[in-house]
Amino acid sequence: MSTVAHTPTQISPTTIKLDANIKSRVKALAKARRRTAHSLLLEAVEIYMEREEKREALRQDAMRVWREYEMTGLHVTHEEADNWMEKLEKGQDGEPPKCHA
Q1: 70, 44 in Cβ contact below 8 A?
Q2: What tens digit of pLDDT does each residue of 33-70 get?
Q3: Where are the domains of the chain?
Q4: Residues 83, 90: contact at Cβ < 8 Å?
Q5: d(Cα 68, Cα 91) in Å, to the nearest integer?
Q6: pLDDT by residue (tens digit) across 67-101?
Q7: Which terminus of the chain, N or C, has less C-beta within 10 A?
Q8: CB 58 within 8 Å of CB 47
Q9: CB crowding 13-51: b at 16 or more within 10 Å, else e
């Protein structure tokens, strides 16, 4: 979880509408954890954002790599990559396989 310190100028209120079931569950968990519902929801949003930002970065990277492949045709086979990773898992150093068309 991010532990970024917030100053009053960085915080702005927002509204979220929760159905009664979710709201009840948040309140119950907050009470069990001796926390406020606000702090639980804030933590949940921070965790979600961190996860989704990482997922989006991975997606963007995959799209970049795909476009590069489409332009160059350079690649390694599954078997080549698997053999290299197997060496790494065994603690052996090794250069990655060379790309080819």
Answers
A1: no
A2: 999 999 999 999 999 999 999 999 999 999 999 999 99
A3: 20-89
A4: no
A5: 30
A6: 999 999 999 999 999 999 999 999 999 899 999 99
A7: C
A8: no
A9: eeeeeeeeeeeeebeeebeeeeeeeeebeeeeeeeeeee
Residue 10 DSSP label: T
Structure tokens at 82: 């698997």
Amino acid at 81: A
Q: How far is it, in rounded angstroms, from Cα 68 to Cα 71?
A: 5
Tokens 């997606």 locate to 59
Distance CA 29, CA 36 (A): 9
Q: Which two tokens stand for residue 56?
A: 């989006």
pTM of the model: 0.70
What span, in angstroms and rounded, lies between the C-alpha atoms of 101 and 77? 10
